[in-house]
């Protein structure tokens, strides 16, 4: 049985293969494409206050753009991880194991100063 | 039954709540954090040729850094999507449905000129 | 007589030539390096409120980091423009000429909604 | 006498003031806008080989887009530095002073491995 993430990676692999686009999908190129899409996501949020950004999904047009930009980012991240043979879920949990050791809940409560959250 | 991606989103939500860090996790801030992590990923690949980047996982140290950077990107993307209430898998498949209509396999075969792959 | 920006571009060219690093300074690689440095700039500001970000230079340590990150961004931008043969000052003024035509001061006063400032 | 860079910063300040846009031009927002523009620059170069990227200015249309994207990046960088009170030229030279000490020309000749150029 495959997971939803593996199914997506498979579909992206087939999509690239059907168009003979694997030649463009080097890690270097895919990382640039990922960064380009994240840039579009930033552009959606750059002039909003943090409070406005928290309400962005209430506006159907802005919500549609956010969904579209997040999808583009997800597509390139999943494709890049697949090309590199990295299991994103496993790698993310390893990061969180580390984060739980490094950022003791009591010490870091409410503070973005002492340590950047999740880093 | 929850998926692996939902489990990760749940764990991130709990991690933030336990540290009272939800206040920092606005879409604006999370998008910046996501972009910062993608910047670290680019830094790993910037001086490599595309061919060298395709072999980057053969060097255990570089492979470890790539896995770590991809994990950071995944963590912030999943957290951002959770805060916004966006289903990443569904949104990504909607993009691919559109991509399959727009980029007919025969017309776009082998060409990154006519259209940017996956966009 | 050369300008301060041309002097900086000359020094960067000499710096790269003395180390035989021109081979790495393709537009593709330099654009990635530029993006990586912008990512570090974002990381400095990601958890600050906009108001806190406006006071960031009052903290000597944070001010030093901001100056350092801005310098890195400037270095890669000037080097990239030099490699491409683009006059940044001229290109920026052309953008502003266009911006003044597109964003009539009376129509766009106080609004980041109607149009993204400076775009 | 003012420099070309100061003239550009002045014009940007006037442009923002005439539209009452200073309220949007916090360091946080401007850093996001800068990153968004760098994302557009990456998108221009993402599918090109490094060699193709070195010839990008030979194609008049691509050259125009590169000039336009570089201008956008320069505009936000100069505006951000102005808002923060940072002298970009001075900060960049300080970086190069440091780079010349750190990266001895003989030791680092031809090598992007031992140290990332210009960092």
TrEMBL record, chains A, B, C, D:
This is Nucleotide pyrophosphohydrolase. SUPFAM superfamilies: all-alpha NTP pyrophosphatases. InterPro entries: dCTP_Pyrophosphatase (IPR052555), DCTPP (IPR025984). It comes from the Bacteria. CDD domains: NTP-PPase_RS21-C6_like. It holds the Pfam family MazG-like.
